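notes to self, project folder thing:

trying the whole complex as one job this time. last attempt i did each chain seperately and stitching them together was a nightmare. two parts in total, labels are on each line so i dont mix them up again. if this works i'll redo the older ones the same way
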Amino acid sequence: MTPPLEPRALPPGSVVGILGGGQLGRMLALAAAPLGLRCHVFTPSAACPAAQACDALTVAAFDDTEALARFASAVSVVTYEFENVPARTAEFLAARVPVRPSPRALAICQDRFEEKSFLRSAGAATADFRAVDELDGLHRAVAAIGLPAVLKTRRLGYDGKGQAAIRADADIAAGWAAIGQVPAILEVFVAFDCELSVIAARGLDGDVACYDPALNVHENHVLARSTVPAPVTAATAAAARAIAATIVRRLDYVGIMGVELFLSGGAEPVLHVNEIAPRVHNSGHWTQDACTVSQFEQHLRAVCGWPLGDPARHHDVIMENLLGAAAERWRDIAAEPNAALHLYGKDEVRAGRKMGHVNRLYPLGSGPPARKLTFRDRP
Amino acid sequence: MTPPLEPRALPPGSVVGILGGGQLGRMLALAAAPLGLRCHVFTPSAACPAAQACDALTVAAFDDTEALARFASAVSVVTYEFENVPARTAEFLAARVPVRPSPRALAICQDRFEEKSFLRSAGAATADFRAVDELDGLHRAVAAIGLPAVLKTRRLGYDGKGQAAIRADADIAAGWAAIGQVPAILEVFVAFDCELSVIAARGLDGDVACYDPALNVHENHVLARSTVPAPVTAATAAAARAIAATIVRRLDYVGIMGVELFLSGGAEPVLHVNEIAPRVHNSGHWTQDACTVSQFEQHLRAVCGWPLGDPARHHDVIMENLLGAAAERWRDIAAEPNAALHLYGKDEVRAGRKMGHVNRLYPLGSGPPARKLTFRDRP
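result (full assembly):
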């Protein structure tokens, strides 16, 4: 039986506006075309990865209201590929055209304190945390939650930037200086065994679909590899998916969300939510080749009011980020029989820059044989 | 062991020129982006499916030598998405930049008599045929090869256009008139049980890779469905692949070729080559979702001197063309859990127009359960 048509569904031929022109915007545009959807990218930078793949491009600043108004009138829905879209930009657009995920979800995810507070209210376990507005407050927060802890700016941090470890009272002043003495959050350090992530989708009709959890390994604070299936029990995987599903439901969220979780072992495994990202997520790139519907297509289905696709996996997979010079291995990777290469069209190679990724596929249920991953394979 | 680098390999960042802006060009452009390759499409029609997906577009006629010269200087290699590129266009470009597949291969495939003659010289079985240049010649050809037979224009026919059946001597004059009294080929009718096709690739280094044969079913002379695996024996499938491999080798071909074969049953199955297409092929669209490397990526790998990808299949699959109003079922198709939708971005729906296709996936080895296909499921 076909479920009823979502009345707000945007038919093929509709134009999806994307704020941001990085590799995530590029891969959204590449996933939009087979659905017959056109992408109009709004970006401050003309020479961006998405420019090569989208149907239309506006190059303007995010506070250029004239350009934003023209953009809003040219698209049927607006989404974004990074969470640091200025709140005013999102609100300006939302007054003119649907913005999905909503500006409310965006605002919560932009502020680590709001985010953690929301997660707690949704019943998700998180590390204990306190807001910190000045040095005295940081001392009080340390006294309240204990050490070791991590001090993070409330806004604009990513890939380990805007963070300082506070291991002892002696680190407090230096940590406060290191993050630039801006509004922050102190989180007690959680001794975890590994990081998992769940890519969750919620459709405009409220339907929720979660992909299998990935095991993520970072190097120099940047995601290096995601392995699926993660080497955890079925119960832990189900618990991780359930947490992600609860989060997107409680936010009335529409689109893909990346939910990062810390798994602590022991007799009773514990999952803490580390952070949520209101967008397609690097740790979900494996879905491009191991699932019939990728996270990029799923996001578009959600924001356009289409039925969600099946998140089932047809391969085991390891996604490896190609950082900096690693992308120069393109030719060897292309010669691997089970590897799917994804380059981002960036001309300039810089150390640590995300130049692309590769998904290495293995038969379903074989377990990824290339690397012997264990529960103790710590980030 | 890594094979030696093909010295002519074009690295990521290179620009691939594509002649033609239809859906095949569009899907080539979508497959190029993950390889870091940029596509520059040359098309007489600005409002074409490829325009929405390519990095650069030249809108000009195929005899506009100024535009062609600029195009040649802007790209590292030229390929094409349809076989009716004027020979002069291909030769003009080939004097300036590599054209792959070669103008020679293109010329052979553009002329049914040259094509059939080449196939015979390569040892492939074909229907008996004669060139026909005038009405008297048609009478002589009928006397030589017998009836029933099919009269086809030597050039520019596709999807059943430019063809006339000659069942009895009384049909001869009308058939000659029906095809416009132009140079033609008369082929004796082959009583076949089904049509198969093999999508074959040959790399710049001479490596050859063939996908599994598909069973093709036509409706109103247009491909309706391709089913893989085809319901034939392993020996027949291997024979079909071997014929295709011989053809691309004998032509020193570079790129994807679609090889259509007629299978006649009986105690000893016989394969006749019907025609070859020097491009990605509608009956190979199933590779987009049932293989790690699609025919589109494979074609780009070949023409750019990259190693060929593994043509192994990880799903059984039925590709269904969405003709005309069938594309209006997009929402129902999107709700099918095993369906991958591919729309071409065409605004205007016309009866019989190829608007998109859908690949329906089934677990490997399960056989396509949706339709009970048999060897006798005749086109």
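what i see at first glance: Confidence is low (pLDDT under 50) at residues 369-379 of chain B.
need to look closer tmrw
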